Amino acid sequence: MRRRPSVDELAEGVRAGSRAALGRAITLIESRRADDQHSARALLERLLPHTGAALRVGITGVPGVGKSTFIETLGRQLTGAGTRVAVLAVDPSSTRSGGSILGDKTRMQELARDPLAFVRPSPSRGSLGGVARRTREVMLLCEAAGYEVVLVETVGVGQSETMVAGMVDFFLVLMLAGAGDELQGIKRGILELADMVAVNKADGDNEQKARRARVEYARALHLMPQKSPHWTVPVHTCSGLEGVGVAELWAQVEGFREALSAAGEWEPRRAEQRVQAMWRSIEWGVVERFREHAGVRGAIGAIEARVRAGSLTPDHGVSELLRVFLG
């Protein structure tokens, strides 16, 4: 049997930029085994001083907006300029097996083969809206491995955006023109999370539609409160397929970092994100402990049946289960 690397060996491998070591470290972080979680905490503590330098960018959009094509084009442009890029593509999970079903490496084949890039699909395992529970920790591992830009692709299902926006520096929302997405995006509140909106697939016959959509989004954003007094959310058109407008878009992302750093907002935002991440972990941890409690496991079936039958209100069911849990 192959010997598992120690925490020290993994840390050294990650710091040396080994993609194999980084992959093993991420597998350790994502494991639910108690002994693995102990090792994962030790590994993160070892690597934490070497994190924080990367630019973290979340990218979302409705299905079919062309996220993967856009990310591959952006990633290839960045690596072409010598920048090391990590892509964390958060997959929806199979409700039966918990496994990834998108297979992002097959959708970003060129970028996955690039020696300056690292592409990692990550199953959500039932986390809210498809955001993997360990995504933040995986970002830290990528930073420790020397990746200068970390791109996090969400599944774009309308629930995960708030969570991913709370763990990245910059949140990019990709939109389509002429498909009713203008109104849908506003209705879902997604524009309130955006640091930039980009109308993708602005090519061929769709170019004029994209330009019109850009004007509509700009008008809508003008009516919304600004997230920062030092940044006005821009709206761009681009084509991930043809690469048009992608470099100009990235220049704005870098301008965002410069603007917020100069205003003294950058580090306080990250500090607040760390506190929020702690509270999310508390929520997840409490729910796990609750579900694993022997008394709760013994009582939950009968209480669920009563709630389902309408003989017990959901709130009263919660009260009964909490009494069991708290002893």
Can you describe this structure?
- By secondary structure, the chain is α/β, with parallel strands linked by helices.
- It has three domains: 1-50, Single alpha-helices involved in coiled-coils or other helix-helix interfaces (Up-down Bundle); 51-263, P-loop containing nucleotide triphosphate hydrolases (Rossmann fold, 3-Layer(aba) Sandwich), CATH 3.40.50; 275-326, Orthogonal Bundle (Helix Hairpins), CATH 1.10.287.
- The protein is 52% helix and 12% strand.
- The protein is built from 14 helices and seven strands.
- It has helices spanning 7-15, 19-30, 34-47, 67-80, 104-107, 109-113, 135-144, 161-165, 181-188, 207-222, 246-262, 266-292, 294-309, 314-326; strands at residues 55-61, 85-91, 117-123, 149-153, 170-175, 196-199, 235-237.
- It has a seven-stranded parallel sheet, sandwiched between helices.
- Helix 1 (7-15) packs across helix 2 (19-30), helix 1 packs across helix 3 (34-47) and helix 2 runs antiparallel to helix 7.
- Mean pLDDT is 87; it is low at 93-105.
- GO terms for molecular function: GTP binding; GTPase activity.
- Pfam families: MeaB (PF03308).
- Belongs to the SIMIBI class G3E GTPase family. ArgK/MeaB subfamily.
Number of domains: 3
| SSE pattern, N- to C-terminal | HHHEHEHHEHEHEHEHEHHHH
Q: Into which percentage range does the β-strand content fall?
A: 5-15%
The total of beta strands comes to 7
Number of helices: 14
Enumerate the spans where pLDDT stays under 50 for 5 or more consecutive residues: 93-105
CATH architecture of the largest domain: 3-Layer(aba) Sandwich
Radius of gyration (Å): 22 Å
